[in-house]
């Protein structure tokens, strides 16, 4: 049962899933602890095995709990099991350089799940903050030797948390455990900076996914760098298109300028039209105090239908053409 | 001057639906084509009324003016001061014309990350830096904000390109 959980941990889970899994683990461990007091060596070995796959939130607290349990086990505990109470301190100091504290693991595993229960109800981020606060309060309760070891452990954690995200190895190889492997997993959760950085990175990746939907052809490329290149390329293309079209318009423009004779009329037209942003433009045209030219027939316009626009436009075109032919522009539709 | 009306008719008949953003947290809604069209035509008319080209200058000069007018109208149409890039564009254009544009003050988050980027210039020009150069106003933005602005900018640019293409199609001799 517990081994199965260990295998599950080797997959890459999100923080939320991991917290939920931890909570399950807590319940199971409580169950296990409550059941057997006779199988203390096996129990503790199993717990040690599980330790490697746990988060930092569990590892950093509840040493007092362990002490309690240690005293509870009494003679059984001291007899067959290697990390006895005295040896434990030695263990702690030995493992301070190594990133693992098996003692801490046991503490946390045996800790009650009451601290983790409200976690599942909260937000992911809040949960991690809460557990970090719990760690901090727990630290004060701890034995000094352990606090020293944990303090030594923490700066190492900060250094390596960003380095790799590989899976953990088993706890049984405590001294040979890869320094980077273990801490990366735990460091992801507890360090305030790393959490903030991870949240920021997730925000950025979310927005990049949104961009991916907009920019055509971004689906084939994976990875941030490739997508960014595509996006930059697309923006450059669009800007070049604008430039090209403006050049084209500049070529066509001399023909247009002569057509724009009545400046005042035009501006009045535009102010009227701009007033209604979303409506069809045809709605405003009847309001327009036009007709210094007087030849345009606006009564035939049906403002609310886009399809009927084509009909009046034809009449406009003919009338306008007749109007402008007199000025001999040579401007043709 | 009715050709403008005709063109506007064409735009309204080619009306596209508003682009609804699929992600509700990121709001990049862009107004419809008509708004862009109106602003652009207005700016064009302003251009030509200001400088009546009796003897046409070089086409390049006119092209540049039209391009500037296109960008300014795009910035106005996309929601004047509600987007960082549009404000930066308008500010840039105003500076070129030796005018001063004032916008309503907005809170500016100065992140320590940005200042650290400025200090270390040894970093190779990353993709995000290139993007900052492209998107107006992208010099002092957080990366996540930059992504939002880029998305909105791309939408507006494509809309502006469509409008200009319609205009060119309408005006080109048949």
Write a structural description.
The complex is a heterodimer of chains A (333) and B (174). Chain A is built from 16 helices and no strands. Chain A has helices at 2-9, 15-35, 40-51, 56-59, 63-73, 75-80, 85-94, 102-110, 117-121, 124-141, 144-160, 179-190, 192-214, 224-257, 263-275, 310-325. The longest helix of chain A has 34 residues, at 224-257. Chain A is rod-shaped, with a radius of gyration of 37 Å. The relative contact order of chain A is 0.07. Chain B is an all-alpha fold and 174 residues long. Chain B has one domain (3-10, 31-171). Chain B contains 7 helices and no strands. Chain B is globular, with a radius of gyration of 18 Å. Chain B starts with a helix and ends with a helix. Chains A and B meet through helix 13, helix 14, helix 15 and helix 16 of A and helix 1, helix 2, helix 3, helix 6 and helix 7 of B.
Shape by Cα distribution of chain B: globular
- The number of helical elements of chain B comes to 7
Low-confidence stretches of chain A: 1-11, 50-174, 177-185, 261-266, 268-333
Low-confidence segments of chain B: 15-22
- Helices and strands of chain A, in N-to-C order? HHHHHHHHHHHHHHHH
- Give the % helix of chain A: 55-70%
**Largest interchain contact:** A-B, 69 and 68 residues
Let me know the number of strands of chain A: 0
Biggest beta sheet summary of chain B: none
User: What global shape of chain A is seen?
Assistant: rod-shaped
Roughly what fraction of the amino acids of chain B lie in strands? under 5%
The DSSP helix count of chain A reads 16
Quaternary class: heterodimer
Order of helices and strands of chain B: HHHHHHH
């Amino acid at each position: 049962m517990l081994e199965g959980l260990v295998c599950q941990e080797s997959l890459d889970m999100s923080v939320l899933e991991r917290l939920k899994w931890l909570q399950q683990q807590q319940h199971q461990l409580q169950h296990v602890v409550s059941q057997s007091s006779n199988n203390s060596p096996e129990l503790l070995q199993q717990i040690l095995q599980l330790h490697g796959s746990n988060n930092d939130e569990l590892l950093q607290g509840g040493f007092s709990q362990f002490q309690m349990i240690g005293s509870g086990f009494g003679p059984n505990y001291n007899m067959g099991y290697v990390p006895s109470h005295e040896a434990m301190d030695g263990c702690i100091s030995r493992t301070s350089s190594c990133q693992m504290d098996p003692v801490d693991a046991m503490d946390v595993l045996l800790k009650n799940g009451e601290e983790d229960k409200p976690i599942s109800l909260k937000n992911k981020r809040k949960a991690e903050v809460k557990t970090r606060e719990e760690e901090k309060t727990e630290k004060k309760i701890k034995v000094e030797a352990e606090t020293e070891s944990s303090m030594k452990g923490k700066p190492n954690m900060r250094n390596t948390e960003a380095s790799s995200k590989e899976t953990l190895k088993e706890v049984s190889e405590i001294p040979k455990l890869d320094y980077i492997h273990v801490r990366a997993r735990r460091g992801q959760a507890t360090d305030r900076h790393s959490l903030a950085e991870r949240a920021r990175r997730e925000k950025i990746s979310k927005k990049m996914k949104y961009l991916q939907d907009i920019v055509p052809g971004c689906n084939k490329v994976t990875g941030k760098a490739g997508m960014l290149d595509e996006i930059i390329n697309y923006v450059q293309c669009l800007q070049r298109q604008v430039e090209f079209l403006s050049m084209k318009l500049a070529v066509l423009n001399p023909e247009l300028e002569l057509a724009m004779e009545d400046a005042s009329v035009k501006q009045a037209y535009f102010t009227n039209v701009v007033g209604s942003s979303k409506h069809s433009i045809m709605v405003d045209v009847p309001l327009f105090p036009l007709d210094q030219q007087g030849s345009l027939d606006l009564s035939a316009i049906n403002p609310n239908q886009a399809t009927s626009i084509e009909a009046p436009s034809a009449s406009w075109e003919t009338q306008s053409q007749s109007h402008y032919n007199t000025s001999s522009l040579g401007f043709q539709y | 001057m009715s050709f403008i009306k005709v063109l506007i008719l064409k735009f309204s008949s080619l009306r596209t639906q508003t682009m609804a953003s699929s992600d509700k947290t990121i709001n990049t809604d862009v107004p419809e084509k008509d708004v862009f069209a109106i602003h652009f035509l207005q700016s064009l008319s302003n251009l030509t009324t200001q400088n009546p080209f009796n003897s046409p200058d070089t086409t390049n000069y006119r092209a540049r003016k039209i391009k500037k007018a296109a960008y300014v109208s795009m910035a106005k149409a996309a929601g004047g001061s509600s987007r960082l890039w549009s404000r930066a564009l308008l500010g840039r254009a105003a500076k070129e014309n030796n005018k001063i544009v004032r916008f309503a003050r907005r809170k500016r988050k100065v992140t320590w990350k940005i200042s650290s980027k400025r200090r270390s210039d040894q970093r190779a020009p990353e993709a995000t830096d290139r993007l900052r150069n492209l998107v107006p106003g992208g010099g002092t933005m957080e990366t996540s904000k930059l992504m939002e602005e880029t998305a909105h900018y791309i939408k507006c640019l494509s809309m502006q390109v469509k409008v200009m293409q319609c205009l060119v199609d309408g005006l080109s001799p048949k």
